[in-house]
Specification:
It is a single chain. The protein has about 70 residues and is mostly helical. It has a domain of about 35 residues. About 65% of the residues lie in helices and about 0% in strands. It contains two helices and no strands. It starts with 16 loop residues before the first helix and ends with a helix.
Length: about 70
């Protein structure tokens, strides 16, 4: 049986797969330092920014492809 120490990454109860991915994401991005609402705002800004970027790239590539066909 694993030891249950408060400062270890492993917990006594096995976490779900989704919660372990969220935990890793928060560690990799540095969002673990923020509170819940701050983390939500940072994610909305990040996802919104990437969405706008990919929509712009998609529209640019669509126009580029149409210009090649003509």
């Amino acid at each position: 049986m694993p030891s249950c120490t408060p400062n270890s990454d492993a917990s006594c109860a096995s976490p779900s797969l989704l919660s372990s991915y969220v935990y890793r994401y928060n560690l990799w991005t540095g969002l673990y330092m923020l509170s819940g609402p701050e983390r939500l705002v940072a994610n909305v800004i990040g996802v919104g920014g990437w969405s706008i970027f990919f929509l712009y790239v998609a529209s640019f590539l669509k126009g580029f492809a149409e210009a090649l066909v003509e």
